[in-house]
Amino acid sequence: MMFKRLTRAALLLCAGLSTTAFAHNPMCECKEIPGEQIQCKGGFSDGSGAPGVTLDVIGYDETILVPGKLGEDSTLTFKKPTAEFYVLFDAGPGHVVEIDQADIPSQ
After folding, report:
1. What is the rounded distance in angstroms from the CA atom of residue 100 to the CA atom of residue 40?
2. Do residues 63 and 56 lie in contact, with contact meaning Cβ atoms separated by under 8 Å?
3. Torsion from C-alpha of 57, 80, 65, 74, nearest 10 degrees
4. Strand order in the sheet with 96-100
């Protein structure tokens, strides 16, 4: 009986550890580039890219200024909006990154 409990506890521990081993966090970085444009690159902390993941540019009034998806190279380039904005990288529940325009470095 004790052996079964120890085995069960060991299996639960291993299952919990394997979940964390495969966890990856979303990452997104934006920078201003020549021509009044912004370029954003998204991916995950395990080094994988994020092609096709939603990256929207949203005004402070919550209107979507630039709807977008990351390209095959996991980037999206767009003209810098005149209105105040933030960038929303949305790879699904628990995998969201927001970048305010004030946090985007100028060239």
Report:
1. 12
2. no
3. -40
4. 64-66, 54-59, 85-90, 96-100
Q: What is the pLDDT along the chain (107 residues), one digit of tens a residue?
A: 444 444 454 444 444 443 344 558 999 999 999 999 999 999 999 999 999 999 999 999 999 999 999 999 999 999 999 999 999 999 999 999 999 999 999 87
Mapped onto helix, strand or coil, the DSSP state of residue 26 is: strand
The structural domains of the chain, ordered by start, are 24-103 (2.60.40)
As to burial, measured by CB atoms within 10 angstroms (0-12 exposed, 13-18 middle, 19+ buried), residue 77 is middle
Distance CA 11, CA 6 (A): 9
- The shares of helix, strand and coil residues in the chain, as percent rounded to the nearest 5, are 20, 40, 40
